[in-house]
């Protein structure tokens, strides 16, 4: 059997969902190594040898080279495909939204979702942060909604890895108490992404 990609992944994680969705979109075969939150797997010597940052997702290429950071994985996997715009400006806009997702979107919406939905007692522990998360997260969502009111997708005129990156945590933002009905352009975009023939949901596994 030919070597294939190996994805170290937590199923509920939006960051881990990104490469799963991209590989399914692109028809790239891969296998999953499941990690469980709080089980200490990311700090094992074997894993730290692959990713000293002790985080999943981690993608191991067929030749054995490791690659960390979900958006870096998207760039690698989509190289030469229609998921990266060929026009230089559209490509730069695609990258702009990748950076926005990691710098402005994920640190608020993903972190809030994790505490409010996946950490036992997290809502009580972080009650003092909820108002801040709401303020910052809704600002991010408003920026996205304003852009999507004039554009079908984030990385130029066609679906791209920027859409995959932003879809991952936006489509589950209600788990962080965000009301997506306030953002009709986002709701329409989520439907466009989910209607793609190769789309798979967060629960999908190869």
Automatic annotation (TrEMBL):
The record ties this protein, via PROSITE patterns, to: GST_CTER, GST_NTER
Q: Which InterPro entries match?
A: Glutathione-S-Trfase_C-like, Glutathione-S-Trfase_C_sf, Glutathione_S-Trfase, Glutathione_S-Trfase_N, GST_C, Thioredoxin-like_sf
Please list the residue ranges annotated as the GST C-terminal domain. Answer: 87-206
SUPFAM superfamilies per record: GST C-terminal domain-like, Thioredoxin-like
Gene3D superfamilies to which the protein is assigned, alphabetical: 1.20.1050.10, Glutaredoxin
**Stretches assigned to the GST N-terminal domain:** 3-85
Which Pfam family, giving just one, matches this sequence?
A: GST_N_2
Protein's recorded name: Glutathione S-transferase family protein
């Amino acid at each position: 059997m030919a070597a294939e990609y190996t994805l170290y992944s937590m199923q509920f994680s939006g960051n881990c969902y990104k490469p799963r969705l991209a590989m399914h979109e692109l028809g790239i075969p891969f296998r999953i190594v499941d990690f469980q939150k709080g089980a200490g797997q990311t700090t094992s010597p074997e894993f730290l040898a692959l990713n000293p940052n002790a985080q999943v997702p981690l993608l191991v290429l067929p030749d054995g080279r490791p690659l960390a950071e979900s958006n870096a994985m998207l760039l690698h996997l989509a190289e030469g495909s229609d998921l990266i715009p060929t026009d230089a400006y559209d490509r730069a806009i695609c990258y702009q939204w990748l950076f926005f997702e990691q710098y402005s979107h994920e640190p608020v919406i993903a972190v809030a979702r994790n505490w409010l939905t996946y950490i036992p007692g997290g809502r009580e522990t972080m009650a003092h942060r909820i108002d801040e998360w709401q303020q910052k997260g809704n600002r991010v969502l408003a920026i996205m909604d304003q852009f999507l009111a004039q554009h079908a997708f984030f990385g130029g005129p066609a679906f791209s890895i920027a859409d995959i990156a932003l879809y991952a945590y936006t489509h589950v933002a209600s788990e962080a108490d965000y009301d997506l009905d306030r953002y009709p352009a986002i709701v329409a975009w989520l439907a466009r992404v989910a209607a793609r023939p190769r789309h798979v949901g967060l629960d999908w596994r190869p």
